Amino acid sequence: MATTKILSLYHISLLSLIAAAAAASFSPTDHFLVNCGSSAAQTLDADHRVFAGDDPRFLASTQTLQLQSLDPPSPLYRTARAFTHPAHYVFPIRDRGVHHLVRLHFHPLRDNRCDLSEAEFHVIANGFLLLRNFRPSTAASSVVIKEFAIPVDSGELKITFLPSDKSGFAFVNAIEVITAPIDLIADVAQLVDAEKNERIHGLLRNGFETVHRVNVGGFKVTPFNDSLWRTWITDDEFFNSIEGSETVHFGGIIKYRKGGLSREVGPDNVYNTARVIRSKVSLIPKVNLTWSFQIEKGYSHMVRMHFCDIASVSTYMLYFNVYVNGNLAYENLDLSQSTDAILASPFYADFVVDGGSLAVSVGPSNMSWPRAVDAILNGIEIWKLNNTMGSFDGEVCADSVWRSWRTGHTSVVLPLIAAIFLLLSASVFLQRRRNASASTGWARLPVDVSESNLKGGNQLSSIK
């Protein structure tokens, strides 16, 4: 038993090293990691990534504060950059025409000059309104990471922070800008609702905000074990179906096919675990495995379901149905056909749904085999799509937020300018009066003026 445990631990460590090596092999064209507010040349985060200190080439603002915490949760959150006026981070982009991952790190540290727990602000990136009236202190965790995938067609990515009127300042602890792999986001997906199940196109024109990233049946995956430095949480809080479920852990090698999806779409540590339905007798279980989520109303969301057959003993033995909100989204899914008849080879399916309550399910189909695996799921990702106004946060566009900020501050500035103008005008008026009084003051009369001339002086003075 002890030998088995040692071998298992060795095997897990070996897989982690392989995953870490794979993560290190990914080299995006654009790759910026900035530790905001830091004067240090380099800072290692908890996953051993190197963040550079604030570079004046990127920060296009002078009205900022560098803040520092004495008790940060990690070195990356020891410092922050705070703004009392709109400020921009501008990153030069070489890989144009593709999506870029933007991660914004927030930890409301406390400094003698500023209490970031009171901060409320807006964030804009290349015309997309990412956050509006955002208050990091209201989050359940002391550290908040907001992740977006933004299409960038120009030669720069400008991220703007605008303080709201309530707090008067904004802040950020760290920023990541990374070229997204070309196969990370597809242009097509299945639109699924109660009335239709049809293919839609044009998704690459949208931005995406990460809402959930779940490793089904496995452990939490940290950025150290993901080639795109993502975090995948466990599915415990979302999984509803205890009956009929079995967890599978795979000790072999995940086979990424040439021409198929890459490791950047999903890491090994997601595909080597799963939840399955397995019939152990001649009867096929009449159960589904279901995961439930709450997603924001008023927005379309893309749901990605990750599959990798790590449980079947042979190809062409696994057939199952996929459901989205109780609607049949995929009937008789055959992973062998989708992966060129290779076991342990990953595949995903994308679905677009409306916001509100979301439930995704897998279950046996009428082609399922007895005494075999009858359904499987390895991972779930959910992204929010921007609305028609380019916003992820309300029925308002980025330009409107800008105008609102300018109007609010103009309403303060204009009266101040008017008051200064009035004071200047009054000063000029008083100065002119003093000058006029000095030029018309009493003077000595000529000694040769006669009495008769004195009596008619006022009349004579008016003759032209």
Describe the secondary structure blueprint for this structure.
Blueprint: H1 2-25, E1 31-35, E2 42-44, E3 50-53, E4 64-68, E5 79-83, E6 87-92, E7 98-106, E8 121-125, E9 128-134, E10 144-152, E11 156-163, E12 170-172, E13 174-179, E14 188-192, E15 197-201, E16 208-215, E17 233-234, E18 246-249, H2 268-271, E19 273-278, E20 289-308, E21 319-324, E22 327-334, H3 335-338, E23 346-364, E24 373-377, E25 379-385, H4 398-439, H5 451-455, H6 457-461
Parallel strand pairs: 1-3, 14-23, 16-17
Antiparallel strand pairs: 1-13, 2-3, 4-5, 5-12, 6-11, 7-10, 7-13, 8-9, 8-11, 10-16, 14-15, 16-25, 18-19, 19-24, 20-23, 20-25, 21-22, 21-23
GO molecular function: ATP binding; protein serine/threonine kinase activity; transmembrane receptor protein tyrosine kinase activity
Pfam families: Malectin_like
Domain Malectin-like: 34-384
